[in-house]
Amino acid sequence: MSTSTISGPASAVPDTAIPGPPGPAIDASAINALSIPASAILARFSGVRRQTLALCQPLTDEDMMVQSCPEASPAKWHLAHTTWFFESFVLREFLLGYRVFNPDFSWLFNSYYESFSAFPEKRLRSSFSRPGAEEVLRYREHVDAAMERLFERDPEPEALRRIELGANHEEQHQELLLTDILNAFFTNPLRPKYREQGLGIRDQKESIEERQIPLEFLQFEGGLKEAGNSGNSFCFDNEMPRHRVWLEPFALANRLVTCGEYAEFIADGGYRKPDLWLSAGWDAVKANGWRAPLYWTEKDSNWTVFTLRGEQPLEHLASAPVSHLSYYEADAYAHWAGRRLPTEFEWELAAEGQPVEGNFLDSGLLTPSTNFVQNENGTKYYGDCWVWTSSAYLGYPGFKPLDGSLGEYNGKFMSGQMVLRGGSCVTPQRHIRSTYRNFFSPETRWQFSGIRLAT
User: Fold this and answer.
1) CA gyration radius for the chain?
2) Is 353:409 a contact under the CB 8 Å cutoff?
3) Is the pLDDT of residue 445 over 70?
4) 165 shares its domain with 208
């Protein structure tokens, strides 16, 4: 996306827009009382908005239109939807006299908030040739300018809570934007690179010479433990309330399963042995023809792995964490290895109190790697790949979703999903904490999802 496109004229904002209806009320206790000043929230909002545009910088307008799999969305849609969020849930209620950019955008860029408005089918997003990329960017400029006016008027605490929620929501879409572009470029016969080599935290030569870390298991005592977020700082509603869980003694691997180790599973016929798989997983293997992780390609008995930095020989990534696996594949590998997947509460107990350090979006590497900091006992809990857990995505005891349309943010998906923990190499670092719960259906493979074994 060119610089001239990014800086499209704000004067093109339509002057025929009409005021929108008030947004839904939110139970403030469900988002947490914010103690940080409005200036800090403004800085966070502004930084997140700039980062999203920066992630689109390498893309052409044509790239921004691609929707290459049912789970994905076009980059242009991510730009518009994250803007829609602030317009719909902040400006229309808290900025007196705000005029919406385009009344059709109120439903066109709604994702799934049934109680807010109708919306198009997700699979049709790639057909939105209009509005064009330049108009979407003008939409962002219009909303960002209105947000600045809101901050100048000393916004009330409820508005600040929603802005904080919106910033975190946009960080989620930054990660989705990159996972979607990876899939789009993989399906392109030219296999283009999103980013050239040598533009990350360390050069490519160093990043592909992965350090092999011995696999060890750390022991943890069982007993009655606490899990979940206390609500003293920002978190999503699905992380609360803090509650007690009973854990038997367990052991957790000090690192993620590597590409080389997963290649051994493949070579041993892992995708041909139904006894390793859950019934639904085996059905998925047969129906989809799975024989390796997504983005692995075999040619002349040699495997390559497609990344945001282009195609890489598997031999260069043998010690790097394996990624883009479904829950079914993670579970099958664990059975093959004589282990199991951890529960989400086992992972949280192990990670709680540990520094949130590792290979995140901030590193610029954009691919899983072992060459990142570990804690004092040689273990790294965060970054690289989301970890599939054996826990179904359900509400905690006493869970209460947000009031109004924002109650659809998380609670409505608490069926048929599995929990993932820890963040990935395309997750913003400040977005992650030990109580953060990601969730996807068990057949999902387009995310940066991997395996940490437990016993």
Assistant:
1) 22
2) no
3) yes
4) no
